[in-house]
Design goal:
The complex is a heterodimer. Chain A is built from 16 helices and 29 strands. By secondary structure, chain A is α/β, with parallel strands linked by helices. Chain A has four domains: 136 residues, 2-Layer Sandwich (Nucleotidyltransferase, domain 5), CATH 3.30.420; 110 residues; 140 residues, no CATH class; 83 residues, no CATH class. In chain A, the strands form eight sheets. Chain A has a six-stranded mixed beta sheet. In chain A, strands 13, 14, 15, 20, 23 and 24 form a six-stranded mixed beta sheet that branches. In chain A, a hairpin with a 2-residue loop joins strand 2 and strand 3. By secondary structure, chain B is α/β, with parallel strands linked by helices. Chain B folds into two domains: 327 residues, Histone deacetylase domain (Arginase, Chain A), CATH 3.40.800; 95 residues, no CATH class. In chain B, the strands form three sheets. An eight-stranded parallel beta sheet of chain B has the order 2-1-4-10-9-6-7-8, with helices on both faces. A six-stranded mixed beta sheet of chain B has the order 11-12-13-14-15-16, covered by helices on one side.
């Protein structure tokens, strides 16, 4: 039995899932000042009459990290950078950094050592900082400097927490790792307080099942692991929705999913049942980070979108004036159009007709006006999908074969979830000329998504056979290679071993492992091949424990 | 931050090599990729990355006469790198960016008008393909190409030797000491285009100081004077002190400052084979400089290896070279008139051209009509021997843009007449006016 909780902008939803079926669901207002009370209200309601002893897992999609950033409730971070030669990012990070000596080059070779005295001076100056972040250029190729500087910081400043750059991401991009590490430390204490409160509340309720937190990439991580990398719990709402879709349906081939809410629609593109990822990472408070996330676009159209005429032109959204007129709202909305068009059935239809009369042009019936409104709303979503496809097709690739082959997604199906999906998703599908599914229970897809999301974890292995060593960036690990004649298969096996080890440390079961990235180059010096450079990234595949039966109304 | 938009077409062709251990192999831009991705350069708001388009064979044929045909001599990689240069130029023409850098491979500046194979790692001239594309599609007239590769850009020189609307300036390590062994000061253009080819052979060991002396005192003033519609930089990076194939002493700072001063509209990567010690830093420096960003911290970790200060001998030589070329530039109209008068109606040259990568020896005879009304038609008779194919030959006429009716007629007649003799295997008319390459 699984419990899933999703903290949304307006409501906090909770669902209990047993043997692939939703056996209880509950809703409580989100309490922004004190997230925990809303979470507990929804949870207590959902668990009413449920034997908590049978719960195997509790998973939570929370806005705690996002809120801390948005509301500025983050800690000041002492940000220590080892930038070496290159672009000056001093003005491009959230906090004025300390620039330290020491450089690791692109092959992971030390070209200048870090200076202990410099670190000591920085620690003295930042002695009031409770949290630190240490980020070195090319530390993903050799974590030595980050590890060494972190040790010195521990000695000189003894902060509550130190984030190192390579630990938050094994991918190249010093600037993004610096931002990620900064935010990881900045939200470390607020998240820790929240985690402690959750643990206590669970204990009080006799819930012994492990608590997991949803990540932006749609995986989950145990609360204890999340306490080390809280930045990954940013923007989990859209991730929960995408996972909900994964649990409720299995989009094959290329597809597009729409989460149509009150004022916005989140769009994701899918390939073979997996949503596409934002290649480089999410943006936090405008700063690009290395936090992996689904690739989503949001457009300002939803059920509550305000519909009016501006200079004779029909305009839909992006703002909201209130609920639909049919539900007692002050102004015409997309939902009113859906009611008039017979695509939704609730509230006072007479008021919905009045709403459409307000936006009709002369000689237009309310029904015709409703069709115009829906066509306009559909068009906004359709255009946004087109822009996403164009963006994907224009994404640079670095191999001749990939240029020649091209990579333009052609969605074959639309999946809609969210309050207004029943009305709008089929119209978007019609514009695209493809089929449409709106799964049952689409209204609580987010909480379902959180409940069934599988834990994920990744490692990046880079081996340099000419130098005879390899690194696992995320683990701060560097060791000699077992053989000079390493193949990509060997590298994959080695990475799998480390992933298993890392998963065990984090308390994560290893299920399906996939290689998400691999490259291999021959190293040639003086016209002979002296070795190979290989990079492979492995992850425990994101996904859902079990599909959810589509029984019951949406 | 100065967020001046700048376009970058990065295409390292990670699946293409001339041969597994050739300098032009998959690994060449690997460390450059590492550096620019690690720096976060592709995420800077002022830098926009573009995916290269695939150029068409027709784009290549606007410049080249491939024997037997261009498609059989190239791979898709060549069309991607030429397409990358076009993509960069298109972004500039559309004013999406102020300037752009096509950081692409394979290179092109040793590829001449007639192509039998690959020479100096080049098969098609990606800058020329781009320039002629711009002339065809955007009505660009005057073009300046500044070749900052350590090797003489003999292919680009060859293609524009007769074109007074294209200024070609190349500085390079002296041809007496380096491939391709050309690029001397007396190669200055055909009589009617005299002065619009400027060669600046520099002594081995030239440092940033010498290079910037040439730039400040000759290249920049000449560009100012020429008033081109567009400035192209053939941005080879093998003048670097660590390059294994040459002997110069330029640093990443020297290259970045060059890019900053030159203000090229489009830069296109050419050579550069110090793939670990130079390219990551030189490319980062050029990108930052072209984007108007601070590049002062882009310093090679092994900068202590770089020779410092120009030698007195080299300083003296460079001053003299600049003075001489400057005099030639100022006097070019008179010198051109004299050369035309001396040559009569036709100007002719015979050359041997060696294709080091393909093992081909080519013999070429070019005849240019010194037409009073237009640029004049050119005929090229070419014969090549190579162990792959034995021998191949062709006769072609090139009819320039705005060719006069007489040149159009005589050029065509020359090919028809050659075909009657049956001396050659292939016959072509490259017609820039009609934008097509015709086979007879």
């Amino acid at each position: 039995m699984l419990l899933g909780i999703d903290v949304g902008g307006t409501f906090t939803d909770a669902v209990v899932i047993d043997a692939g079926e939703v056996i209880a669901q509950a809703k409580a207002p989100t309490t922004h000042r004190d997230l925990l009370s809303g979470v507990l209200a929804a949870m207590d309601q959902a668990l009413d009459g449920v034997d908590v002893g049978r719960l195997q897992r509790v998973a939570l999609s929370t806005t705690i990290v996002t809120n801390a950033v948005v509301e500025g409730k983050t800690d000041r971070v002492a940000l220590l950078l080892l930038p070496g030669p290159g672009m000056d990012i001093t003005a491009l990070v959230p906090e004025k950094p300390y620039l330290l000596a020491g450089y690791i080059d692109h092959r992971g070779r030390e070209t200048a050592p870090p200076q202990e005295a410099e670190v000591e001076a920085a620690c003295r100056e930042m002695k009031e900082a409770a949290v630190f972040a240490v980020v070195g250029k090319f530390a993903v190729r050799n974590p030595l400097h980050e590890v060494t500087v972190a040790q010195w910081v521990r000695r000189f400043a003894a902060p509550d927490y130190i984030t190192t750059g390579a630990a938050v991401s094994g991918a190249l991009n010093f600037w993004r790792r610096a931002n990620s590490a900064y935010y990881n430390s900045a939200v470390w204490r607020p998240f820790g307080r929240f985690a402690a409160a959750i643990n206590q509340a669970m204990t009080e309720r006799g819930v012994l099942a492990p608590v997991y937190v949803l990540k932006a990439d749609g995986g989950t991580m145990p609360l204890a692991a999340a306490a080390m990398r809280p930045v990954e719990a940013v923007f989990t709402g859209p991730a929960a929705s995408v996972l909900g879709i994964m649990a409720l349906s299995t989009p094959e081939g290329e597809a597009v999913s729409l989460d149509i809410g009150g004022t916005s629609t989140d769009i994701a593109l899918w390939r073979d049942g997996i949503p596409l990822f934002a290649e480089r990472g999410a943006r936090i408070a405008g700063y690009p980070t290395a936090v992996r996330s689904f690739w989503l676009h949001s457009v300002g159209v939803g059920g509550d979108s305000y519909v009016r005429r501006e200079k004779g032109q029909l305009v839909v959204g992006p703002m909201r004036q209130g609920p639909a007129m049919a539900a007692g709202g002050p102004a015409p909305t997309v939902t009113d159009a859906m009611i008039v068009a017979g695509l939704a059935d609730f509230g006072d239809k007479a008021l919905a007709l009045e709403a459409m009369r307000q936006v009709a042009v002369e000689g237009q019936t309310p029904e015709e006006a409703a069709q115009s409104v829906l066509a306009e709303a559909t068009d906004i979503i359709f255009t946004a999908i087109g822009a996403m496809i164009d963006e994907r097709a224009a994404e640079p690739v670095y191999r001749v074969e990939d240029i020649v082959r091209g990579s333009r997604p052609v969605p074959q199906a639309v999946i809609g979830v969210g309050g207004a999906a029943v009305g709008l998703a089929p119209l978007v599908a019609q514009r695209l000329g493809v089929s449409c599914t709106v799964p049952a229970r689409a209204m609580v897809a987010n909480a379902i998504g959180a409940a069934v999301a599988r834990p994920t974890l990744e490692v990046t292995l880079r081996a340099d056979t000419a130098q005879g060593y390899y690194t696992i960036a995320e683990m701060g690990y560097r060791a000699s290679l077992p053989t000079k004649r390493l193949t990509l298969d060997d590298a994959r096996d080695l990475a799998t071993r480390h992933l298993t080890e890392r998963a065990a440390q984090a308390g994560i079961p290893v299920t399906a492992v996939e290689m998400t990235y691999a490259e291999e180059f021959n190293l040639v010096r003086g016209f002979s091949t002296i070795g190979k450079i290989m990079t492979c990234r492995l992850q425990i595949k994101p996904g859902v424990f079990s599909p959810i039966a589509g029984k019951g109304g949406a | 931050m100065d967020a001046k938009p700048f376009g970058l077409v990065f295409f390292p062709a990670f699946d293409w090599a001339i041969s597994p251990t050739h300098p032009e192999r998959e690994e060449r831009l690997l460390y450059t990729r590492d550096q620019i991705v690690e720096e976060g350069l592709l995420d800077i708001p002022g830098i926009r990355e573009y995916k290269p388009r695939l150029a068409l064979a027709k784009d290549a044929e606007r410049v080249h006469i491939g024997v037997p045909d261009i498609s059989s001599l190239i791979t898709d990689a060549h069309l991607v790198s030429a397409g990358g240069a076009i993509t960069a130029a298109e972004a500039v023409m559309a004013r999406e960016v102020t300037r752009a850098f096509a950081l692409v491979r394979p290179p092109g500046h040793h590829a001449m008008r007639v192509v039998h194979g690959t020479r100096g790692f080049c098969t098609i001239n990606i800058e020329a393909v781009m320039v002629e594309y711009l002339r065809q599609h955007h009505g660009i007239g005057r073009v300046a190409i500044v070749d900052t590769d350590v090797h003489h850009g003999d292919g680009t020189q060859d293609i524009y030797y007769y074109d007074p609307d294209t200024l070609f300036i190349s500085f390079h390590q002296d041809g007496r000491t380096l491939y391709p062994g050309s690029g001397f000061t007396d190669e200055a253009g055909s009589p009617k285009a005299l002065g619009t080819t400027i060669n600046l052979p520099l002594p081995p060991g030239t440092t940033d100081e010498g290079l910037h002396y040439v730039l400040d005192n000759l290249i920049l003033p000449v560009l100012e004077d020429f008033r081109p519609d567009i400035i192209i930089n053939s941005a080879g990076q093998d003048n670097h002190y660590s390059d294994p194939l040459a002997n110069m002493a330029i640093t990443a700072q020297g290259y970045a400052r060059l890019a900053e001063k030159l203000k090229a509209d489009v830069a296109v990567l050419e050579g550069g084979y110090s793939i670990e010690d130079a390219l990551p830093y030189v490319n980062t420096g050029i990108i930052l400089a072209m984007a108007g960003l601070d590049y002062s911290k882009v310093i090679e970790p092994d900068i202590a290896r770089a020779p410092r200060g120009e030698s007195e001998a080299s300083r003296g030589y460079i001053r003299q070279l600049v003075a001489q070329q400057h005099a030639l530039w100022r006097d070019r109209a008179r010198l051109s008139r004299e050369a035309v008068a001396k040559a009569g109606d036709f100007w002719q040259r015979r050359r041997g051209i060696y294709y080091d990568d393909s093992g081909i020896n080519e013999h070429q005879t070019e005849v240019l009509r010194l037409c009073p009304a237009c640029q004049g038609y050119l005929t090229v008779a070419t014969e090549a021997e190579g162990h792959h194919f034995g021998a191949k030959s062709a006769f072609a006429a090139c009819l320039p843009r705005q060719a006069c009716p007489q040149c159009r007629r005589e050029g065509r007649d020359a090919v028809v007449a050659a075909k009657k003799t049956g001396k050659y295997q292939h016959y072509f008319i490259q017609d820039r006016e009609q934008d097509r390459l015709e086979r007879l």
